[in-house]
Amino acid sequence: MATLAGALLLAGCQKKVRELPEAGDAVAGQDDGYDGSVDVMAIETLADLPREIIVDNEYLKAEVTFDEALFQKAPAIAMDIVDSAQIRIEAMLADAKAYKEADPEYFRPYVVRIKWNVVAEAGNVMSLEGFIYTFTGGAHGNYMTDARLYDSQTGQPMRLSNFFLQPQATIREHMNLVWQEIAEQKQTKAGGSGQMETFVAEAAELVNADSILAGEVNFVPSTVPGKFGGYVVHFAPYDIGAYAEGAYHITVPQSAFREKLKPEYTNLFDGEPAPVERMGD
Fold first, then answer.
1. Which among 187, 193, 175 is positioned nearest to 245, based on CA atoms?
2. Displacement of CA 91 from its chain's centroid (Å)
3. Which fold has domain 2-158?
4. Tens digit of pLDDT per residue, the chain (281 long)?
5. Where exactly are the structural domains of the chain?
6. What gap in Å lies between CA 211 and CA 171, rounded to an integer?
């Protein structure tokens, strides 16, 4: 993938961006059977990578958009993100077709909306968040944050554990901060009612170091330009509370773990976490 990304960078072609259609409008050149297929590995130039994917047929209504910064700064990452979106669309389309065939009376078209943004960058590390809304039947849809960390030079995915000398021990040391933040957000969502001690205890039962290291985690921007201010772990509705509570985004400041970072990553972190605007909040 990195070799092709290099070729894309050298191509230097102009981007091609298609306007999003109004609801119910047909997409030019696409009939109702269009499934949004994008053969990422067959793409030869940066301009050919889609800035959006739109599917509008009897089975699936899909709209996916990508941050332009991805294409300009890290084509290899853009390829991976586009491919990931395509895989999700194909899986949902197949499931929707099977559902309609099995129960045509109750079937309603599936819906997926995805928006990818570059949240923060420091050194050769890029932090992304993808807001994903899906509807597959039932009373309501659901949404989540797909969090990603990448080496922007190679396009290789990274995990939170890659940055620490002792990942498990480091996360365990600041779990109290995580549980406290969950409890404070729960109390706020409850309108100020409820006991903090109870919320903290509930959080400790639901979230541990293992779940954070395996969870949806990315770095957040800092009050110091060009640095990361900490990391954020995302919990979708139902993960740690009722659907009505919505999503939880728990930020841990870099001051809580900076001394435990691998030496080559220490200079990427400084300052305090800066706020991030997110869909669904």
1. 187
2. 18
3. Heat Shock Protein 90 (3.30.565)
4. 433 433 333 232 223 333 333 333 433 334 445 555 655 555 656 677 889 999 999 999 999 999 999 999 999 999 999 999 999 999 999 999 999 999 999 999 999 999 999 999 999 999 999 999 999 999 999 999 999 999 999 999 999 999 999 999 999 999 999 999 999 999 999 998 879 999 999 999 999 999 999 999 999 999 999 999 999 999 999 999 999 999 999 999 999 999 999 999 999 999 999 999 998 77
5. 2-158, 160-268
6. 10
Q: What are phi and psi of 218, to 5 degrees?
A: -150, 170
């099995």: which residue's tokens?
A: 102
CATH topology of domain 160-268: Actin; Chain A, domain 4 (3.90.640)
The burial class, CB within 10 Å (0-12 / 13-18 / 19+), for 207 is buried
